Structure formats: structure tokens, C-alpha cells
Amino acid sequence: MDALKYITPKFFTTIRNYSKGQFLKDLIAGVIVAIIALPLSIALAIASGVNPEQGLYTAVVAGFFISFLGGSRVQIGGPTAAFVVIIYGIIAQYGMAGLTLATLMAGLMLIIMGLLRFGDLIKFIPKTITLGFTFGIAVGIVAGQVKDFLGLEMKSVPAEFLEKLLAYGKHLPSISWPTLAIGILALVIQIFWPRFSQKIPGSLVAILVTTAIVAFGHLPVKTIGDLYTIKAGLPSFTVPDLSFSLIRQMISPAFTIAILAAIESLLSCVVSDGMIGGNHRSNAELIGQGVGNIMSALFGGIPATGAIARTAANVKNGGRTPVAGMVHALTLLLILLFLMPYASLIPMTCLASILMIVGYNMSGWRTVVRMIQRAPKSDVAVLIVTFILTVFFDLVVAIEFGMVLAAFLFLKRMSDVAQVRQWVDKGNLEDPILSEDSDLKQVPKNAVVYEIFGALFFGAANNFLNVINDDGKNVLILRMRNVPAMDISGLDALEETLAICRKRGMTLLLSHVNPQPYRVLEKSGFIQTIGPDNICESTDQALEKAVALAKEG
Predict the structure, then answer these.
(1) Residue 473: which of 421, 550, 420 has the closest Cα?
(2) Looking at residue 270, what is its pLDDT?
(3) How far does Cα 203 stand from its chain's mean position?
(4) CB-based contacts of 70: which residues, under 8 Å, 6+ apart?
(5) Among 145, 406, 493, 538, who pairs with 352 as Cys (CB 3.0-4.6 Å)?
(6) What is the distance between the alpha carbons of residues 382 and 128, in angstroms, rounded to a whole number?
(7) C-beta separation of 198 from 312 below 8 A
(8) Pairwise CA distance, residues 17 & 134, whole Å
């Protein structure tokens, strides 16, 4: 059982000692979170280019399975703002069939990632990339709300950012002043309401107030019902198009959805762990996210992940087990069944204002400004490039290019850190960093000693070859105590060094080879080539061997 603990859902752990008192707390928290999730789910669905009820399908189906099978005690799953730009782009290019298949494939990828224990690897994605694409997504979300917020007479909004701006400028004369007034009122309510109450979300209050004003005042403001036909009832089971050509096209979008879902859900887990003093199971969480997305795709939903704000609200209201998340999903199901027709009265400008607030809150602009001011130029470059690509192209390109750029910069730094130093006199041996034995005061006259610092990989191998020279000696000692790892390029550099030594009649000795480099040398046959006797356990042993070789010579 211990071997499977890393993928065991938290539900089965917490339910063992479950009490009636905790159920009441989870029940209250679940209902409150459902109230918070209701307007967000509808708004995010519309912003993503799908029908309003599909946002609730996602919150109900994916939300239930993410809580039931996930690795967090308090995670709340559902549609999030991070996916809006991706979903809108996929639907614009491939339609709903493409989105359904991409969501299903992303779910499978997440499950595989969890089974392969990739949960701990997500933390290695640089913060500059996550900040860059999050800021870019936020800008895209806000830009996508201008039409509904201003009430512009536009048939559709282009998917591309620059085309959006040009279209808005062209249709700006058609602005609806009553619509703008209602939108501003909704913004004001959301900004100032938290000062009066933290329990009831400002977005819900904004919806209730603006809906009442528009309905009873008979204002010429477009509502959800003017643009969409809302369906009440249970979602139907749908099987996506599984054609090979579409599957091939959806690999990249699905991978982006999976990576983004993994990053956001695990980040939410870390935040909630700090709030409750718990420890999540990252790999179980990925599996739960995967199942949730698969089920969402099969029941007409959109991509889902852990929602940080809703998860935090769950914790603050007493939720401590996955039951709270399951109650949240079931509460939304009841709303979907019995109250959904009333959603048609909600003004579109109010939903646009909700998403503008969401975009502002998720942008993290203060953190971005602070990083630009304090971070190294290379990190700032990654952030800016990722941001620009997210806004002007798409998130798929941004993540892929950002990861490649960050990897190259990391390798450059590793290469810069890697150094090769020559021991020039006995003073070096008195340095506690370079000396293992204070009794040995000098290097034999027939030998030259070089110490390698840092990983010996392809980025540093050329530097290694450029520095080393023999100075007319017949023994070359390479001290590898500070080489934690090496790759095939490092091996090639050593083989080339050995060939040069033999050509010049020199003996090559390696001292203090660490485990990983030793395995590389052993597997490649290099140890047999150089001779096992020429691999020394310590530098002292190598120096003694150099003295012996001098006497033999």
C-alpha cells in the first residue's frame, strides 16, 4: 500500500476519521464556494467562446472528480481564467470538436504525468515563464471583454490581439452608454463590496444588482438571453471525434492545456497547504486533474484545473476535506437543474466587468514590475518574450519558446560557472579548498594538475579543452572532485584529452571521480581505455603515481 500512497486520493485518507462536525463545516464551505463559482463559471464560459451552461458542466463534473480523486484535501476545481485565451483560440481554429478532443487528450497526459511521478518536476518550470504567460493571459482576458463592457455593435471578436484592437477602434462609435454605465456600476460594486462583507462575493452582488436594474428599468442593455439559448438540465454524454488527423493537430494544444493545468493546480495545492498546515500529494493531484478533464470533455465541459481563489475561500470558510469540493459541485448541479433559466437575465456587461476584475487580480503586475527591477537581464528577457508571445501569438508558442529560451540561458549560466584551474605552485596545495593532504607541499616537476569546477557537459566541454595545456610535462592530472555530473560531450572532451596525451607521450590520471561521472566513464568503456590504475581515489594518490612515473622515466 505504501508503494501506491503517492497516487492515493486524499479523500480516502481523510474519510477514515470523518466526523459529523467536520461534515457540517464542509457543507457550509461547499455551498459558499458554489455561490462564488456560479458567476465565474458562467463568465469564463462565455469569454472562452462556449455556451454559459458549459462552464457549469465543467465546475460540476470536473470539480467533483478533482476533489474526489485529487491529492489535496481542500482543492476546488473548475474552469479558470488561465484557460480562456487557449480555449478561445482552439475553438476559433478547430471548433468545439477540437476543444473536446484536446481536453480529453490533456486529461490522459495529466494521468500519465501523475503515474510517472512528474508532479515534483513541475516546480522546475522557471518563475519567469509562469509570470510571463500569466500576465499575458490576463491582458488577453481584459482585452476580450471590451466589446461586451462597452456594448459595441460587433458580430464577433477576432481571436488575434492586434485584430481585436483594430476591430474595437473601428466599432467604437457604436458604444452603448447605458451598457457602459451598468458595467462601471458592476466594477464599483466588486471593488468596494469586500469592505462590507467577505462571505458573499462581490461578483454575485454585482449580478443581482445590475440584473434587477436592467430588468425592471427596461434598459437597452444586452443580456445573456439576447445572445445565448441557455439549457437547464443534466449534461449529455458526448464522444469526441477520434480521427487521426485531428488527434495529430491537437497534440500541441493538449500539451499546453495539460502543462497549464498541472502548474496552476499544484500551485493552488502549495498555497492551500500553507493555509491548513497540510501536505498534498502532487502526483495524485495530477491524476485527479486528468480524470476531471476527461470527464469534463465527455460531458460537454471545457478544460479545468485547481482554482486558487475558490480553494482559498473553501479553506477560509471551514472546508478541510475533499467533501467540501464535492458539495460545491453538487450545489452547482442543483443550480444548473432549477435556476439556470434566470441566468438569461444577467447583463453581458456585468459578466465582462467580472472578468476584468479576474484578469486584474491574476495579472500579478506588482510582482512583474518588481522582477523587472531586481532580476538579472536574462530572466527579464524570458519574462518579456513569454509575455509578448502569449499576447500576440498564443500560449502554446509562448510556453514552448519560453522553456527553450530558459533552458539555453540556464545552460549558458552553467557553462559560465564551470571553470578549469591549474595548480601552479605549492601555495595552491595549502588552500583548504584545493588540498586534501597538507603533507604534500608541491606538484612533481614532471606533472601538471588541473582542477575542474562544475558540471562537465556540452556547454562547458569546449572551455575545458581550450584551457588545458601540458607545459612540456609528461603527466596530466585532472582533479574531478568538484564535477558533480557529466554528459556525452564531457566524455568526448576527456577522450580527446586522452588522445592528445597519448600523442604527446603523456600519462592521463583522473582523481576523485564522483559517482555519476564514474558511471558514465565505466559504461562508455573509458575506464578500460585509460586503464583502471589511472583512476585515482584522491589527488594525493595521483601525485604519488606521478612521482613513481618520474622515477621510472
Answers:
(1) 550
(2) 85
(3) 27
(4) 9, 10, 11, 77, 265, 284, 285, 287, 288, 289, 292, 306, 322
(5) 145
(6) 6
(7) no
(8) 39
Q: Are residues 430 and 375 in the same domain?
A: no
pLDDT value at residue 453: 84
- Going by C-alpha positions, the residue among 101, 12, 3, 2 that lies closest to residue 288 is 12
- Give the integer Cα–Cα distance in Å for 466 and 408: 21
> How far apart, in whole angstroms, are the C-alpha atoms of residue 301 and residue 553?
80
126-to-70, 106, 132, 303, 518 alpha-carbon distances in Å: 25, 21, 10, 23, 30
Contact 335, 38 (CB under 8 A): yes
Q: Domain of 447: which CATH number? A: 3.30.750.24
Q: Which of 354, 375, 408 is the last residue of a domain?
A: 408
Does residue 385 sit in the same domain as residue 280? yes
**Domain interval for residue 507:** 418-552
* 130 found inside a domain: yes
pLDDT for 427: 47
Element (H, E) at 508: strand 507-511
Interacting residues of 275 by C-beta distance below 8 A, sequence separation 6+: 74, 312, 315, 316
Provide mean pLDDT across the span 124-140. Answer: 84
Residue 277 lies in a domain: yes
Integer Cα distance of 38 and 78 in angstroms: 10
Is residue 203 within 8 Å of 40, Cβ to Cβ? yes
CA-only gyration radius of the chain, Å: 30
For residues 70 and 285, is the Cβ–Cβ distance under 8 A?
Answer: yes
Among the candidates 408, 426, 446, a domain finishes at 408
Instruction: State the Cα–Cα distance between residues 29 and 23, nearest whole angstrom.
Output: 10
Q: What is the pLDDT of residue 429?
A: 43
Residue 116 has pLDDT above 60, yes or no: yes
Angle at 545 between CA 547 and CA 462, to 5 degrees: 105
First-to-last C-alpha distance (Å) of the chain: 64
Residue 232 is predicted with a pLDDT of: 81
